[in-house]
Design a protein that fits this description.
Elements (H helix, E strand, L loop, with lengths): L15 H5 L3 H10 L4 H22 L7 H7 L6 H7 L8 H8 L2 H9 L5 H28 L4 H18 L1 H9 L3 H10 L6 H15 L1
Helix pairs in contact: 2-6, 3-4, 3-8, 6-7, 8-9, 8-10, 9-10, 9-11, 9-12, 10-12, 11-12
Amino acid sequence: MSMTTLAPPLTGSPDFGKALRDTVVSRWHKRLSANPTAKRSHWRTKTVYFRAVASLVAAAPGAPLTWKSIVEAAAPNGSRSTFYEVAGAHARHPMIDAFIDDGRTDSIQLALHYRRTDAVAQLLDEAKVWSYWTHRERMLDAVGTAGPLSPLALEAEVCESLSKWSRANPQLAATLGHTPPACAVEDLMLIRNGKMAAVRAASQLTEHLRRAA
């Protein structure tokens, strides 16, 4: 069953903002970032590494990234053990597991598309979501107050939000071949109401990011 078939109809209805705030990535982000328990501490650890990899990419675009260089950039809080708690095959609470656990067709498509064998690439995917999140929140706030919007207008809002993020973070946006943040791909699939596969949605947003660059 498609994830999007379970969401409210997205034709500019007042439910759009509610639906976009309850996506798989939204729930993953909220569960970790807003949780006062040990998961909250793990999100703080993730954030240390997100900032570290983003700073490395910004300082030296195209330079090789390794777990060692990222750990050094995360000093004094970085270590090999915490890096592999955040990224890699045995990472705790990875975003891709949220898609797999959700189990619906669209989520599995996203999991397959964002599946990485390289820990650094996995970290970059999550860092993009972390970096883009405030832009996404502003977009959702604007959509929520704008009144009924057509699917094309909603898609344009997503693209404009991505453009603003890309302009603010050009080096990070360009990594991994301009792969878009997974949450933006999920949002576009939701707007298309089950009529766009993950590969196509990601490709469309990748091309948008390349043009924005």
